User: What shape does this take?
Amino acid sequence: MLTLLLNLALLALSPTSLQDPILLPTPAETATAISITREGMVMGTPWSLTLAAESRPTALAASEIVFLALAASELRLSNWNEDSELSRWNRSIPGEPFACSPSFSHELRRADTWRRITSGAFSPLTEPLVRAWDLRGSGRVPSARELAQALDACSPAGLTWMEDQPIRSGAALIASGGFGKGAALDAALNLSVAEHSGPISINLGGQVIVRACTETVGIAHPQNRAQAIAYWRLDSGSLATSGNSERSKEVNDQKIGHILDPRTGQPALDFGSVTVWCDNALDADCLSTAMFVLGPDKGMQLAASLKNVRVLFIENTADGLRLRATPNCQPYLTSAHPIHGLLDPQEAHNPSHPAK
Ligand code: ADP
Ligand code: MG
Assistant: This one.
């Protein structure tokens, strides 16, 4: 594992991974002499980083921490890596204490908390369903019996807690697809503080987290990633989008989405997409998956009951796209489309009239 990390680190330090300085928009009081960008792959997903610091050594050292933190998250949480902590947990003997890292237990705990908050629309225990639908392969439609067994194995009773220690009871299996990216982003951002607390923006597979800088994030059309439907001014925290545009499978002409409803075992209804802002990436990741399962009506109801979250639904309707947002998105969102719940539709219809 150490060799792997060292090799990855050397790879990332190759001159091609550093580009000419590009200044990030930063608060006036922050001393930022240079900016660097860096990119790579983790958990089978592309990531990129932009940070501005007072000196090149500081910028390089901070970017190195981000790089290593993302690689470490993969070794902790990947379902693809047989040796990851998560894969070892999935093979561990039920009922026996599993010695896990504090990060693993903290991340799983938070994901499990979102299961409770969303009444099971999000669940870290969806792995039996992910396998039944072969979401990591080419996809398949499980028989009614297989589905019933998989649903049974997703029972929340399969994960219990002894203080901060997760206990695997029964056949519980964790899938990190709905929270691993967020967890990795939080770890990278938080650990980078050891070298650098200034402007930084990290993008992991489309989920973005920023600190001390502002980025405008285009929110894609649910069916066409190349077309931005709205723009989100992100000046803190993290923005996650869940949708099916690129990751659904097709089996016997049936489209199977990669987000499942753990309460029914079926792929969630594909209504469009949902974008969620939270002050940390793990929460945004979990909640965007849950909101996709809940759909716009129930999702907006849940959003209204939560503090400090911002939500934008983009829904395909017979009359075209329908955008709905929580009112607290007001200062951050602009779109040429009316945004219900946010702006007067007449005003918003005028593209030259940006959100205040
Ligand atoms: P993406 O990875 O495209 O950002 P999400 O963050 O919404 O998408 O997570 C989808 C992944 O999470 C799936 O590929 C699967 O591994 C897992 N998953 C699917 N449905 C759920 C769910 N209801 N709760 C938690 N995880 C889920
Ligand atoms: Mg998610």
